[in-house]
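User: I'll paste a sequence; please echo it back and then give the predicted structure.

Assistant: Echoing your sequence first, then the prediction.
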Amino acid sequence: MFKTDLFQAVQPQLPDSYKHATDEELIERVQERKRQLGTDLFIPGHHYQKDDVIRFADETGDSLQLAQVSANYQEASYIVFCGVHFMAETADILTNENQAVILPDLRAGCSMADMADKRQTERAWRQLTELFGDSIIPLTYVNSSADIKAFVGRHGGATVTSSNAKTMMEWAFSQKKRVLFLPDQHLGRNTAYDLGVPLNEMVVWNPIEEKIEEDTELEKVKMILWKGHCSVHENFRIDHVNHLRKNDPDRKILVHPECSWEVTQASDLAGSTKYIIEQVEKAPAGTKWSIGTEMNLVKRLEKNHPEQSIESLNPEMCPCLTMNRIDLPHLCWTLDEVYAGRLTNQIKVDEKVAVEAKLAIDRMLKR
């Protein structure tokens, strides 16, 4: 069986009628389905979504926030999650069993989340505990699969967001001497450095080669960083910062902590997506920004704040390709399927995995 056949066995192919419909036709149809489904439908939309999708969102936000809001919106039987796969998994973990979480396109994944899988992580844990003994606690960024969240929950760790990473890392260090941080090395490095952990006390675990990359004295190691990254934020480079400092020194540089340590250190401000939005919203007219995060959000901030000068730190950036899998035709098709009583592309996390993953999430929410 070819890969395309395997994919279609999981997700039916989008019918041609949706591909050939005009935007006006699709918009009218989505509006009608929302009206017909009423409070039985809830559409959370991530900040990185396209404008033609985010316009239909009942709530916009970051991944965990949207999962929590979905869980609180208990009158909705159908959660059509406009985000990526791990976000829909988290929503399924937190919502009740009477709510169905649906992803309009199963190809909407996350390259960062895919950089740590269950098999790799279990093998790494065995090898790292052989090296360091019972001195490690795992933390995982919420941008990870349900399997990785479950692994962390099972081993006494917790999830983190880009907003609370410092708080959670402080908690982790109060539990054990060392932290294994999955799957984004940059958020882990930036957070630990801000807490006073020097770079020479951090190492990178390479899950492909199954080894620590640095030749260092193991006793000094405090942070074990999984070799993963966001393919969007890693495209903001120090040469972009240097070019801006030279040619437009009055422009403030504001980046997400998924950017590299070099870029984050050289910027004026760094913080979560929520932090980035808040900084722009409270800035006075005439403020000049160069922002290092996903392009759909940068363009939306630029449109919503014409009184400021807003541009991307990398002028050649494109939007997140996997996030953009959720488009107007797929959203319309999904709502038609829901209205017809078909749960196409329902995201259902295994019960045991969900219980252990929720342990990791709950440990974070209690902090």
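The domain at 113-230 is CATH 3.40.50.10800 (Rossmann fold). The chain has 16 helices and 15 strands.
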